[in-house]
Write a structure and sequence with these properties.
- The complex is a heterodimer.
- By secondary structure, chain A is an all-alpha fold.
- Chain A is built from 13 helices and 2 strands, in the order αββαααααααααααα.
- The radius of gyration of chain A is 24 Å and the shape is elongated.
- Helices cover 52% and strands 16% of the residues of chain B.
- In chain B, β4, α9 and β5 form a beta-alpha-beta unit.
- Classes of the chains: A mainly alpha, B alpha/beta.
- The interface between A and B is large, with 42 and 45 residues.
- Chain A: This is Ubiquinone biosynthesis protein.
- Chain A: GO terms for molecular function: lipid binding.
- Chain A: Belongs to the COQ9 family.
């Protein structure tokens, strides 16, 4: 029997919400090569975490983080291998209703495992239990945008860009509305240093998905700017929602609408900003030249 | 001391260049360590055919092994914990803590600790469940606390008695949590699918048929149950390996003689560590028993390894 690496679980939407449809067409997808720092690998629907190669794990003291680990699994085609991930996914999903009472903790996972009919000992095998729960649930929340893009397209066709963005963000935030009571805890778990990278990745994925569903016309200059701005709007709206007690979160949607309109309503805003910057730059340049000429007379 | 005195003499010979002294010292010490360790191992291997029964070559050897293991633990039982502390320089406590943190015990758990006679691991599980983290539980979990059951199974009654004494010393007199059971790891008396967790700490290398013990572990675990095995394993770092071999073959049996009055048992212990399969091979055996998501973690570079598997 071959010894191969085993994939524990993945954070993207693929594993939990089986997707229909194929990879996104490549037009306007890839980020411009200008800023390699901000390269987010973009392969269709999500960021795949590659399977871990077979590694040895050693640690000088038991309490330290382990850089290596030996993993053995059955051969790749074995149905048992998918069973672990499937069972784990079911435990996470079953744990969600319990978070209202128990918070985003191991206890919720244990309750979820009991609901699924599996021994709660399985929770012990999940690394970073509460962070994993938050990540998995967040990727599930994003699934309406990913899965139902075709249905959404019809709904969104007749709206302006800013209305489309508002609607998409609203769809996503409404998914987490029932769990808003303990959502601050989820956010604080994600803010822990160990969990931040995954948090950023998921956020970037989500914003990307929203832009594509809104019909990103993708021009080189705007790619990063759009995603950054929308990411900012999303985060502030999410935080606003935490303290919003209006019925059905009416105030949040008004807030969201205003923010999106401010940022994206005028299609030409970005281009205008560029012209403005040029003009200002030119003006500043003239001023500097004049200033230098004043100091060093005779210099060009 | 004899070892060093034999090799020291050439260092003071006038025929050697002064700068060659340190290099020669190191080389000769290493050479001596290596050859001595190898000699020990070969000598032991030739002498003790019973150690080859791991693969089940002959019935007679297996019987001998069972008797030998029985004798070993009967004679070392009273000094077992002290010898653990001495030979591992107190590290065994950290290893067991790591095992428990990997296990992740929860209230209401049914846990089986096999070959855990003196109760180290079982007590840690109990303390972990009672620990602070679970005090913030809500009412729904309070009723399950009464159902936490930890079974300590050991083939040797002397070890169990030591465990019972330690339990009383620590105040675990409430018998609803801890149960001491005499039994064989290859033929457990528990029902199938009744345990949430199964741990075996420093015990599986003493089992005659490891595959049977793994199969039994698979049988008694519930769906979703975890198997964890803490065991002394193979240490491969090139230079430190010599030191480790020297420590194992020359120092540990002497310690055993001084403290527990039993050199043979500790020599058996060290040899059985070398005879035990390597980490990868043992992990494959666990997969063959039916477990999923099998992995191992080396502690102290491989001196100790924690193998874990999940039953689904």
């Amino acid at each position: 029997m071959k010894i191969k690496s085993s994939v524990r679980y993945q954070f993207n939407g693929d594993r939990l919400a089986p997707q229909k449809g194929t990879m996104r067409p490549s037009g306007g997808d890839s980020p411009p090569p200008l800023c390699p720092r901000f390269q987010i690998p973009h392969r269709g629907r999500g960021i795949d975490i590659p399977p871990r190669p077979f590694q040895r794990r050693t640690s000088a003291s038991p309490a330290s983080a382990d850089p290596f680990r030996g993993t053995v699994a059955a051969a790749e085609g074995d149905p048992g291998r998918g069973k672990y991930e499937e069972t784990q996914a079911r435990v996470f999903i079953a744990a969600l209703p319990h978070t209202a009472r128990l918070g985003w903790t191991e206890s919720a996972l244990i309750a979820g495992a009991r609901d699924v009919g599996v021994s709660p000992a399985i929770v012990g095998s999940i690394p970073r239990k509460d962070a994993a729960l938050v990540e998995v649930i967040k990727s599930r929340f994003a699934s309406p945008i990913i899965d139902q893009r075709d249905e959404l397209k019809n709904e969104l066709k007749d709206l302006t860009l800013s209305d489309r963005l508002t609607k998409l963000i609203r769809i996503r935030l409404e998914m987490q509305a029932p769990y808003i009571a303990k959502w601050p805890q989820a956010l604080s778990i994600q803010a822990q240093p160990a969990n931040l990278p995954n948090n950023f990745k998921q956020r970037a994925e989500l914003i990307d998905e929203i832009w594509h569903a809104a019909g990103d016309s993708g021009s080189d200059f705007d790619w990063y700017l759009k995603r950054t701005i929308l990411g900012g709007i999303y985060s502030t709206t999410e935080v606003y929602m935490l303290t919003d007690h209006s019925p059905d979160f009416r105030d949040t949607w008004v807030f969201l609408d205003r923010r999106v309109k401010d940022a994206f309503d005028l299609q030409k805003t970005v281009q205008e900003a560029a012209y403005l910057a040029e003009a200002v730059g030119a003006g500043v340049g003239n001023t500097v030249k004049g200033f230098m000429a004043g100091i060093f007379p005779g210099s060009k | 001391m004899r070892l060093l005195s034999v090799r020291v003499l050439p260092l003071f010979s006038r025929h050697l260049h002064p700068l060659a002294l340190p290099i020669n010292t190191l080389r000769s010490v290493l050479h001596t360590l290596r050859s001595r360790a190898e000699t020990n191992l070969q000598f032991r291997r030739r002498k003790n055919h019973r150690l080859r029964d791991y693969r089940g070559f002959t019935e007679v050897s297996e019987e001998e092994k069972r008797k030998l293991v029985g004798n070993v633990f009967s004679s070392v039982a009273s000094k077992y914990d002290l010898m653990n502390d001495l030979t591992s320089v107190g590290l065994h406590r950290l290893w067991k803590d790591r095992l428990i943190s990997k296990l992740g015990p929860f209230p209401g758990m049914k846990h089986l600790d096999v070959a855990g006679g003196t109760g180290d691991i079982a007590f840690r599980v109990l303390e972990s469940i009672r620990g602070v983290g679970h005090k913030v539980m809500h009412d729904s979990f309070v009723e399950t606390e009464g159902q936490t059951q930890i079974f300590i199974c050991d083939i040797n009654p002397n070890m169990l008695n030591i465990g019972k004494k330690r339990a009383i010393e620590r105040g675990y007199t409430n018998s609803s949590y801890l149960h001491f059971v005499e039994g064989d790891a290859e033929a457990l008396s528990f029902e199938g699918g009744s345990m949430d967790g199964y741990t075996i700490g420093f015990g599986i290398r003493n089992v005659t048929h490891i595959e049977k013990a793994l199969a039994e572990a698979y049988r008694v675990l519930k769906k979703g149950g975890r198997f964890l095995c803490l065991e002394l394993s193979h240490f491969e770092f090139p230079i430190f390996k010599e030191l480790y071999d020297y420590y194992s073959f020359s120092i540990i049996p002497v310690m055993g003689e001084l403290v527990a009055g039993d050199k043979e048992s500790y020599q058996y212990l060290v040899e059985s560590i070398r005879q035990f399969p390597k980490q990868d091979v043992f992990a494959q055996m666990i997969v063959d028993a039916g477990f999923q998501s099998v992995e191992y973690e080396n502690l102290v570079g491989g001196v100790v390894a924690i193998h874990s598997g999940l039953k689904l």
